[in-house]
């Protein structure tokens, strides 16, 4: 039991440090803008670039390393991740910072995919949904502790020290991985084409789009969370850290609810979530005229953000384990890959809206993606209810 708990802690820590590094930019947006004399919207595109590189590189690297020992794959990926953050810490200009984020993004997706694969491997079957939801909660904990801490460190000591904090946690995480995770874990050997066979499944193809449009909905506004809080809702910088922590707690609660959802209604419960997101996003331009109601609305939307995680992750893994056992790592990576496509799409959309309209437009912009997500999950549930497989479904 102690080993199980320690392994769970390590897997959550992997997700935490990856989330801390990825989301940190949101909290230090203004500081980087001032340091490098570029606009806030330009710095915001670091989020977009990170997500695009993350999403594009992850499946290629995942497929290439899938034939090797997964423990050492994870250690190498975490080492490169640490080097990327060291480059961010040392970056003398905005271009070098952007390059360092590319290096970090290239292995971040692989690292979390391997972490999720280990979570499915070492957890007893009844606890898989529970453990997967906790691993995803690591990203939420990064929002609660990491992003506010990174923001506070940046305002007090400079943004470079925020990256130094990520580096220290990364090194500690690697030590704990060495101490706890099984070192002889491999998936069933297969050719590259054999692993890619998973992507020919029609339900997998449709399911991949769900996390994409889920986070596209959120990141239209989430990328600009700091200016929304300080400039739109008129909260002080000191309140910024408190509110980021509140939002992170809402995200953790959402992740725990995601685990419950995966054990109950699963994807059948998601249409209600996307309908709620649509309504809340459409209310943003009106509610943003009032500080505390605006903060409450943001809390509610952020709570809904991770609800898809455990249901869609189990959906991918169950199909892979039954029909494509050679593609377990690739199946584990799909949620994070397409979530980052969604982050890229949402943050880019938000950048266009903020540059050409105003922060008032981010809510309705995100609502469009919520409608698409609603349509996708209804379609997927319809196919699943009819028992259509990759060989019989006709999209």
UniProtKB/TrEMBL annotation:
What's one Pfam family the UniProt record gives for this protein?
Answer: MFS_1
Which topology term describes how it sits in the membrane?
Multi-pass membrane protein
**Compartments where found:** Cell membrane
Mark the transmembrane ranges. 9-29, 35-56, 68-90, 102-122, 134-153, 159-181, 202-222, 234-253, 265-288, 294-316, 328-354, 366-385
Where in this chain does the record put each Major facilitator superfamily (MFS) profile domain?
7-385
Record's keyword terms, sorted: Cell membrane, Membrane, Transmembrane, Transmembrane helix, Transport
Tell me one GO molecular function of this protein.
transmembrane transporter activity
SUPFAM superfamilies linked: MFS general substrate transporter (SSF103473)
GO CC aspect terms = plasma membrane
Q: What is this protein called?
A: Major facilitator superfamily transporter
């Amino acid at each position: 039991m102690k080993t199980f708990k320690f392994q769970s802690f390590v897997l959550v820590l992997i997700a935490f440090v990856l989330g801390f590094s990825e989301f940190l930019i949101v909290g230090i947006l203004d500081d980087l803008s001032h340091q490098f004399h570029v606009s806030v919207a330009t710095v915001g595109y670091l989020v977009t670039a990170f997500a695009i590189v993350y999403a594009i590189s992850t499946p290629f690297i995942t497929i290439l390393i899938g034939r090797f020992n997964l423990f050492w794959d994870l250690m190498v990926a975490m080492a490169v991740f640490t080097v990327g953050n060291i480059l961010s810490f040392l970056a003398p200009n905005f271009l070098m910072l952007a390059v360092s984020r590319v290096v970090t993004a290239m292995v971040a997706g692989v690292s979390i995919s391997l972490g999720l694969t280990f979570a499915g491997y070492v957890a007893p079957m009844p606890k898989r949904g529970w453990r997967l939801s906790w691993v995803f909660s690591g990203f939420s904990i990064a929002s609660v502790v990491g992003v506010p801490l990174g923001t506070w460190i940046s305002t007090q000591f400079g943004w470079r020290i925020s990256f130094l904090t990520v580096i220290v946690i990364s090194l500690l995480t690697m030590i704990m991985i060495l101490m706890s995770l099984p070192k002889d874990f491999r998936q069933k050997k297969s050719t590259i084409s054999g692993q890619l066979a998973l992507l020919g499944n029609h339900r997998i193809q449709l399911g991949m789009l769900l996390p994409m449009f889920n986070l596209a909905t959120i990141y239209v506004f989430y990328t600009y969370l700091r200016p929304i809080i300080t400039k739109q809702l008129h909260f002080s910088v000191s309140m910024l850290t408190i509110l980021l922590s509140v939002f992170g707690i809402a995200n953790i609660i959402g992740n725990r609810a995601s685990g419950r959802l995966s054990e109950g209604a699963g994807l059948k419960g998601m249409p209600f979530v996307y309908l709620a997101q649509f309504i809340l996003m459409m209310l943003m331009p009106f509610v943003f005229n009032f500080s505390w109601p605006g903060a409450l609305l943001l809390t509610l939307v952020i709570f809904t953000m991770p609800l898809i995680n455990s249901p869609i992750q189990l959906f991918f893994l169950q199909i892979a384990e039954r029909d494509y056992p050679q593609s377990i790592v690739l199946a584990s990576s799909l949620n994070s890959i397409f979530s980052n496509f969604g982050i890229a799409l949402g943050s880019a959309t938000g950048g266009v809206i903020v540059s050409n309209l105003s922060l008032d437009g981010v809510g309705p912009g995100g609502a469009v993606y919520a409608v698409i997500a609603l349509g996708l999950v209804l379609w997927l549930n319809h196919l699943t209810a009819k028992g259509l497989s990759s060989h019989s479904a006709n999209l």
